Amino acid sequence: MKLEGIKVLDLSMFLPGPHLTMMMADHGAQVIRIEPPGGEPTRALGASQNGMTVWFRNTHRNKQSVVLDLKKPAAVQAFMRLAADADVVVESFRPGAADRMGIGAATVRAVNPRVVYCSISAFGQTGPLATRVAHDLSIEAESGVVSLTRGSDGQPAIPGLPAADMAGSLMALSGILMALLRREKTGVGDSLDISMQDGLVSWMVNNVSPVLAHARELDTTTERSLGGAAFYNLYRCADGRTLSLGGSEIKFVENLLTALDRPDLITLCRLPPGRGQDPVRDFLTKTFVSRPLAHWQEFLADIDLCWAPVKSVVEAMQSEHLAARGMKIDFPDGQTHLGIPIKFADEPGAIRPVAPKLGEHSRSALAAVGYSAVELDQLEREGAIL
């Protein structure tokens, strides 16, 4: 597999770091999860299946678990032994915490110049907000993303996806792979400062244009991708279900409005998003609410148009397409995993549907870097490892 032979030490928590290191593990990397004595928090968060939370299993499959109490000097020494031949270290402590523990980027890179050391934090290692504690929702709120999602009352609503978490995960993965590629030429690793907010803000390119171009606030009722375009909108059906139109190119406008016998409205869809398209939105609103969703699914099936029913998560997870793409996998023992989104023709990734028990690999991983059985027994007695 693509990352076979790459050794990763993962100190991170919750979603961004564990998700990116799982993707590396799916593609062959040896990922050693360094957990505190209390374990990764997601071991106890959310629904469980077969005695393990689905969240934990879908971020920790294919990994090893080593428990180190990094408040103890012996555990710090053990970590540094592991890091001496690591290719990647990922951490998500508050800025400055890793340095205070003696496992920061400078310390690790002094011992191992080839290592790629990736720090993931809410707002980055520098700047006025660097030390502020935050999870996904606070980062989305600070970045303006929450203001883009409005409920029926016009007030901001909680976004349905942890976009800041996942932006941080993917930016970190990209940066790590770039650094590993560059190391092939230079022989030297690097340090990465990954801000979840930075990643999220970079994703706002289609929304932020009026702000950058005209320094004006966004009107979520008129912007192109927020409902201002008649053909980029949500419409209720007679049975209370919802249909989405997701492409406002004129060819799609022509296809649907012609099929609905209203070609006279096509010209209005050439106008900029906003009030000028109100007659089209009004027509589509009245049209779609006149029939149930099933009728429109049949009607639209042969029309070249960007559309989709708004599915519940249960419906979406039952999709034949997701199953065909291997994005929901049911294993014989009853475990269910989300699939691998990065698909190679050669050397594809693989899922081993096993997530580690807490501290399952503490002794074997440390034995691999030279610890004797006597030394491991002493570390256990001291509480440095579990």
Topology:
Blueprint: E1 7-10, H1 16-26, E2 30-35, E3 48-49, E4 52-53, H2 54-60, E5 63-67, H3 73-83, E6 88-91, H4 97-101, H5 105-111, E7 116-121, H6 136-142, H7 163-186, E8 190-195, H8 196-202, H9 209-214, E9 232-236, E10 242-246, H10 250-259, H11 278-288, H12 293-300, E11 307-309, H13 313-317, H14 320-324, E12 328-330, E13 336-338, H15 362-367, H16 373-382
Parallel strand pairs: 1-2, 1-6, 2-5, 6-7, 7-8
Antiparallel strand pairs: 3-4, 9-10, 10-11, 12-13
Helix pairs in contact: 1-7, 7-8
What does this structure look like?
This protein is elongated. It is of the alpha/beta class. It has helices at 16-26, 54-60, 73-83, 97-101, 105-111, 136-142, 163-186, 196-202, 209-214, 250-259, 278-288, 293-300, 313-317, 320-324, 362-367, 373-382, and strands spanning 7-10, 30-35, 48-49, 52-53, 63-67, 88-91, 116-121, 190-195, 232-236, 242-246, 307-309, 328-330, 336-338. Helix 1 (16-26) packs across helix 7 (163-186) and helix 7 crosses helix 8. Strand 3 (48-49) and strand 4 (52-53) form a beta hairpin. The protein contains 16 helices and 13 strands. Strands 5-2-1-6-7-8 form a six-stranded parallel β-sheet, sandwiched between helices. A three-stranded antiparallel β-sheet has the order 9-10-11, covered by helices on one side. Strands 3-4 form a two-stranded antiparallel sheet.
Short summary of the structure?
By secondary structure, the chain is α/β, with parallel strands linked by helices.
Features:
386 residues, single chain, six-stranded parallel sheet, 2 domains, 16 helices, alpha/beta, formyl-coa transferase, domain 3, three-stranded antiparallel sheet, 13 strands, 36% helix, Rossmann fold, elongated
